[in-house]
Amino acid sequence: MERCRETAIAVITDFIRCVPKPEDFLPYLMPCLAQRFGENEILEPAEELRLSAVEMLSLTVEDVKRESCKCTVNFAQSVPEHFHMQADSLVKPLVMSITHQHSRVRVAVIEATGAVIQHGSGRNVDDVLPHLTQRFLDDSPQVRKAGTAVVGGWLLHLRERYSYFHKLIPLLLSSTTDEIPEIRLLAADLWKQAGTQWEKENEEDIKDKMDFLLSPPAHYPPGVDRPVLGCRELVVRNLGRLIPAITHDLTDWLVPTRVKTSQLLSVLLLHAEDHSTQHLQPLLETLYRTCTETEKEVVKNCLAAAKLIGTFVPPPVFLKLLLDHVNAPHSSAHPWAPLMVLTAVLEGCSKPLLKPHLQQIADTLVQPSVCQEYQQAVYLQQLLACVDVLLHQCKSDCGAVSLQLLQVLISIQSLSAEPQLSAKALESAHFLGKVQDLDLMELYRQHMGQLLDWLFASVSSWSSYSPQRLQLHIIVTQSGPVIGEFLNQLMPIVNSCLQPDRDKEMRMSMFTMLAKLLLDGNNTLDSQGHFRDEAESFLSNILIPNLVWKAGRTAGALRTSALSCLLALLHGGTITPGQLLSLEEKLSPQVLSALEEDSQMGRLLASRSLSVMLTLVGRSMHQDTLNKIYPELLKHLDDSSAEVRAAALHGVGLWLSSLTKDYSPELCAPHLQLLFQQLLLHLDDPNLAVQDQVLEILKKGSLVHPVLLKREAEAVKDKHRSPVYCELLLQHISSLSAETTAPCSEKLQNA
Q: Which GO terms label this protein's molecular function in UniProt (predicted)?
């Protein structure tokens, strides 16, 4: 019955899994399987049972392999004098079985391999090592533990071990960073034994070191036990042969290999200490490449290795190599890699050793090729990290290079497109001041003259793409009232940048920056009251030439930005009415022309600027000048923009308030008639808010020439959709006292 055969196979399979020595019943099982499945005609018709029988046979073979491996170990240990003659013949089958799918078989094969090599001729180590090396990345901890034990045993007992130290040492040391504590402890113990044994075997060679190099070097990594001298010497004497292999494996296509190798690198450098100096060039080249790795664990481990270089290698040595790479980032596909390595190395270096080299480091970081050429976030992050390491390592000693570090931090903020990175750079600037017992304003005051000289040196070549333009923006906006103390250095830079022949986009950004400063002039440019001495020249030589009309959208955008700066200048109170009046004849035509800008913002800014001008100097203007202004404002009572219309109406109201006793209503009656007619037209505007605003303005007009206004209002009252507002106006005119029926400019001014 098929069911009986199925049950029999299942029972035997369970026995194989459970009994301690399943090989004892193989003489009974194998003939039966051979008869049933191994003849010319297979006697088992059911495919499912044939499959179950083969699975049972696989279990049997696995046990056979394990027992064979145990037998090999016992044989090698019992009769080594006979075993070595046959040992080499076992290497090939063992290597073929070392990747068996069951971990228990792999463990047995590794143990057998260890015995075969230990008690064999010693000629097959190179044949076995590539396969054994892969088991150190095995998913099974038991397999990795077995490999660790075997390699440790070879380091201690293999007859030809001195020839294979450079191949065995990295395998055992890689287990000292295993994720399983048991394996780490086993590897550390075996490694210490190997080092101690080597010390005894080479006592004469290292006698001086044993006597005089017992204490660890200064600034040894805290919390780390220093390896014994024998372990350190083993690494030092083999490091030259290990580094090429490390470099190769750090570029392996398998991530676990790269991770394991990066961990091993730190272990080797901890043992090598200052002896890694002679291998520094290839080490740094390797670190540059691995710092661009996508696997974060690899990068983390390699930066830990770089930190050890900073701990053990003298600064003059590593700085000579590192700073050359930092100063020539364009020579690498990943320009931030040298900076990343430098940061880690500096972090490992002690403050007393680093202090004499601060100037050299800061001078390198502030070079334009380092801090001004790259805008990638990752590059700027590494540059900032480098500055932060210097600040936290050396603290108050950074005062000697405060200017250079501030320049670098300003450059980072100016180039960064990420607000978070800019905020971190600003925090570092605050910290730079803090380590010198200065706040940010005092820090800027200390260096402002040098910063402005730094910028002025290149101002003639600036364009919209120049980082210096952005650096200036950072300096003037962050320094607050301090910038007002250095106008004699700032204004030549501003004047140079805003000449009409300079880059248009650069001028736009400069005007935008100045507008923000001028709106808060008392706390920025005019904090010392000195900008007023510059205001007239600034308006005459900078703003007015940039308001001259030129064709093109870019030119229009430039005029708009200049208008925003003009409005800020007028609003901020940094120009006196007298200064403004002296330039009114040059300024008014440009502002009136700007009322015709295609840009809505341009028209709005021009309208508002005109209003402020009328407020400041309107009553000092000649009537001919005033009569040129109102028609331009009237044109824009029909503007497509509601904001422009409102601004134009506001300007008309201010124009009326600007009329003094010197303004003759009778002589200027045609002007007033045109003004009243246009305003009465808008008194019937569909927008109630506009009607209310126009009514208030006409009430002011009734104080200028009430008779004329009354006549014009009565003429149009019946033409309006609703006569309500005209009647309100006429009532207002009628309610005026007998004294106000005649022109009364004084009352108008009071109104």
A: dynein intermediate chain binding
Name the residue with tokens 């005459």. Answer: 540
Q: Is position 705 within any domain?
A: yes
Name the domain boundary from 47, 70, 93: 70
What is the span of the domain harbouring residue 53?
Answer: 1-70
Q: Which of 274, 201, 198 is nearest to 233 (CA)?
A: 198
Dist. CA 497–CA 698, nearest whole Å: 46
**Mutual angle of helices 467-478 and 440-456, in 10-degree steps:** 150
What's the domain count of the chain?
A: 2
d(CA 660, CA 623): 9
Choose the weakest-confidence range: 104-118, 365-379, 641-655: 104-118
568 within 8 A of 514, measured Cβ to Cβ? yes
**pLDDT-derived band of residue 740, with 50, 70 and 90 as boundaries?**
very low
**Is residue 728 in a domain?**
yes
CA nearest 340: which of 406, 405, 385? 385
- Tell me, what DSSP letter sits at residue 541? I
For 14-60, what is each residue's pLDDT tens digit? Answer: 887 788 777 777 788 888 877 777 677 777 777 787 778 777 776 66
Structure letter (DSSP) for residue 225: P
| Contact in structure between 640 and 634 (CB atoms under 8 Å) | no
725 assigned to some structural domain: yes
Out of 51, 70, 89, a domain closes at: 70
Contacts for 246-253: CB closer than 8 Å, 24+ residues apart: 246/170, 246/286, 247/282, 247/285, 247/286, 250/286, 250/289, 250/290, 250/298, 250/302, 251/289
Average pLDDT, the chain: 87
Q: Which of 669, 738, 662 is nearest to 701 (CA)?
A: 669
Amino acid at 170: P
Structure tokens, 12: 């035997």
Place of tokens 């240990």: 77
List, for residues 254-264, the tens digit of each pLDDT value.
999 999 999 99
For the entire predicted model, the pTM comes to 0.81
pLDDT digits over 541-565, tens only? 999 999 999 988 999 999 999 999 9
Sorting pLDDT into bands at 50, 70 and 90, what band is 79? low
Residue 118, domain member (yes or no):
no
Neighbours of 314 (CB within 10 A): 11
What Å distances lie between residue 267 and 151, 225, 251, CA to CA?
17, 12, 18
